Structure formats: C-alpha cells, structure tokens
Amino acid sequence: MNSRRCGRRALVSLWLALALLGAGLPAPQTQGQDAVPSQRFQPAEDEFSALARSVAALLQSRDTARFAKEVTPSPEDWTAIASTNEPEADEALKSFIKGTEPQRKQTETSAKAFLARADSLHLDFAKGDLHARAASPKRIGTVHFNNLQPEGTTLPRANEVEIILKPDALTNHAAGAELKLVLRRLSRFPAGWRAAGGMQWETFPEGIVDENTRQETAMLDTAEQGTLPPGRSVPEIEFTALTEQQKLKLSSLRGKVVVLDFWATWCGPCQRPMAELQKLKQRHPDWGDRVAIVPLSIDDTLEAVRQHVNQRGWTNTFNVWAGDGGWRSAPARAFHVSGVPTTYIIDAQGKIVVAGHPAAMNIDNQVDAALKKE
Asked: Considering only CA atoms, which of 285, 247, 276 is closest in space to residue 343?
C-alpha cells in the first residue's frame, strides 16, 4: 500500500515538473493591448465545440502534434487579420508568422504534460466514448495586435474556457464520472478559436486524487495564473550579455532599479515595446547609473538576438540572452513567463514593484516612484 502511494506521488511530482516546463509556461503568447469593443461579442451556442472535440481527440489518440496544429494560431490565421494599409503590417506579419512554429512546439509540450498528468492518475480514455462539451466563459473581452491589425479592429478574447469531459468508462474508476479542464488565453480568429496559454486539469471525480495531489494541483494553478506578485523578492537567474558574451547574475544589478523585459525577435508585439525601451534613458538623464534597462531574450540562439538588435540599432539597453531552452529556459521558468512581452520592474532591494505587459504600465512613472523609495 505504501509503495503504491509513493509510486503515485513520484509520478505526480514528475508530472508537476513537466507541467511547469510545458503547461505552466506554455505557448508563446503574442499579446496585444486590450481594447474597448465597439459592440459586445455574443458567442454562438456551439462557439467552443471545436476546442472540446480537439481535447477529446487528444485524450483518445494521444496525438499531441495534431492537437497543437489544431489549437495554435497558424500563419494563415495571422495573415487573415493583417492590415493591407498599415505601413508596418508586412514586417509585423513576418514576425508573427516566424513565431508560429515555436508556439506550436510549446503547445505540444503543454499537451504532453497534460497527458502525463492523466497517466500519473491511471486515467485511460482509450476505451469507450468520450463526451466533451465546452462551457462559455463568463466574460469575453477583446485584444488588438499592434502594427498587424487595422486601427480600431479587435479579436474576441477569453482568459480561459472550461471543458467538461464525461467518459463512458475510465480504467479503475466508475463510468459516468465527470472531469474538468481549462484552456487558457484564447483568441478568436476568422477560422476559429486558438489557445495560447496551455491547458490544465481542474477537477476530478471524488476518489481519484488524494489531498496531497489536490494541494500540488492548487500550487501549479497559482503558478500558472500569471507573473510573480509585487513585493516578492526576485529569484536568482543567470543570463549572457550579448556584447561580451559574459554570464552574469541578476543579483549583480542589486542596488539599481531594474526594468527586466522578456521578449523575442520572432514576437511581433515585442518590437514596439523594445524600441521604446531604447528611449528611456534619453528621456531621463537624471536616472544615470541608478537604473538598468535589461531586455532578456528567450530566442533559441544568442547570435539571432545580436543580429536583430544590431540591425535596428537597439544598443541603448543592456541586452542579454536567457540561454538554451527558449520558453523552458531557467529565467523564463523562474519568472513564470507565459507570454511575451512581459516586463518586471524591480526595486533596488531586489523586490518586484510591478509586472505585466509593458503596454499596460507606465514604465517611466513606475521607475521614478521606485527611485524615490531608495
């Protein structure tokens, strides 16, 4: 009995580690600015049924590549919403299309972690029928992708969609039991809804999981919900400077206010915030050496980042690379990065002031306020 419990706990721990690599840091989320909709989006009765079918097919076929292809934004999706009039749209579209393959791979990683979770609980969906339905979210907002979409246009967006599963039979468990999972950070393209925030089991029938497993699930759920909270001391991370290719630790900047911006060359919405970071020190000569502007790239190679910033003259910032792993690199995992761009403002004592999408924060004012607290 004890060995069986330890075995299950070990499997759950393994799944937790996989999920933090995949589902917790899932698809490369190309975020835009929230916009006010001109009229409220009214979902159809079967609005999310295609997503429910994709999840059911994943559980029964275990074909993670097919699932990722179905739910991840494709080059055709981005092309369908691209402006034909905006002067920067062509370049932006290239960036979005370049990001589709890394995003698809990350969604596949998330799906594998999701299946590993089911395996750890001895859930087998291969036998019998699996009925899946989607519950419409309580709120559907909008998103606008800068430089890509025509001005004033948006896509419907949902933070999460719940999928309810009712299998005819589960190995070692009663038939008819309901299970719930969530897909996160979804946008509705002309061809359908696409998910960019991974997936996670939410609830299980009574008797399938013990209390320790429920606590671990709750811990993972908290980690997935977004950035690290304000007031928390930042984790120690290591990165490589683009110029000297020297490895440095974040703690080496202690005593300065740090603007730490996670980004990637293939991320369309990252380009404008990155260009704006170049102007910060020029606007605030009084900051001097008390502030460090640190764009941290999660690209696959250092050379790709260096060529990108040199071509654009983005040399007014302390540009660094996260190292191997991209979305699974140590810095991205440590800071719970589930979408780029993601910016952290860190005070001189190494505590988080604010974190989120750079378009949603006034970096100038936040840095000024942090300097005044020194």
From this structure: 276
Q: Residue 122's Cα: distance from chain center in Å? A: 28
| Calpha distance 361→265 (Å, rounded) | 22
Percent of the chain beyond pLDDT 90?
48
356: helix, strand or coil: strand
315 conformational bin, left if phi > 0, alpha if psi -120 to 50, beta if neither: alpha
The DSSP letter of residue 181 is E
Alpha-carbon dihedral 66, 72, 73, 76, rounded to 10 degrees: 0
Could you say which architecture CATH assigns to the domain 238-372?
3-Layer(aba) Sandwich (3.40)
Place of tokens 């991209």: 326
| pLDDT tens figures, 87-134 | 778 888 888 898 888 888 878 888 998 898 888 877 888 877 889 999
Task: Identify the CA nearest to 297 among candidates 260, 268, 322.
Answer: 322
Distance CA 216, CA 219 (A): 5
- According to the 3-state scheme, what is the secondary structure of 38-53? CCCCCCCCCCCHHHHH
List every span in the chain annotated with CATH 3.40.30.10: 238-372
- Tokens representing 160 are 């999460």
pTM for the whole structure = 0.67
Residues with Cβ within 8 Å of 135's Cβ and at least 6 positions away in sequence, in order, are 48, 161, 162, 163, 164
Per-residue pLDDT band at 175 (split at 50, 70, 90): low
pLDDT in tens, 289-334: 999 999 999 999 999 999 999 999 999 999 999 999 888 899 999 9
CA distance 268 to 126: 40
Q: Give dist(CA 234, CA 351) in Å, integer.
A: 6
| Beta bridge pairs of residue 173 | 170
Instruction: At 262, give phi and psi (nearest 5°).
Output: -80, 130
Distances (CA, A) of 266 to 23, 30, 96, 218: 21, 10, 7, 33
H/E element, 5:
helix 2-21
Q: How many angstroms separate the CA atoms of 279 and 362, rounded? A: 14
Apex 226 CA angle, 153 and 136, nearest 5 = 55
Longest dimension (CA), the chain: 68
Peptide bond into 87 cis (omega under 30): no
